[in-house]
Hints:
By secondary structure, this protein is mostly helical. The chain has one domain (3-25, 33-102). It is built from six helices and no strands. The longest helix has 26 residues, at 43-68. 17% of the residues are buried.
Amino acid sequence: MTWQDVHARNDIIETVLTRAAANPADPMLFADLPDVDRLFGGLSGVLLALQHRWNVHYEAKLDRVAEDWADPRALWAELAAEQPALRAVLDAWKVPAARRKLHPVAA
């Protein structure tokens, strides 16, 4: 993958998140994205990239659990508030691994 491809992938992710701010469940959310098949292998690849983004950000927040005994559920909610479009896309498009892997257990 070239740097141009990396930048193109990032542009697609940002386009999806910008569109999702208006309506994350919009059936046209992923329409007319340039080179999505080549860069992501299709819609499932875009969703996996979004899931990966969530996981990386949440895992970074989880570092605070060890440092200051932060509640993982509070950190999840904090990240959802910081990145509402990302969380909304994952929920609206039912990306189960994003919830299953790192979703905190309810008390």
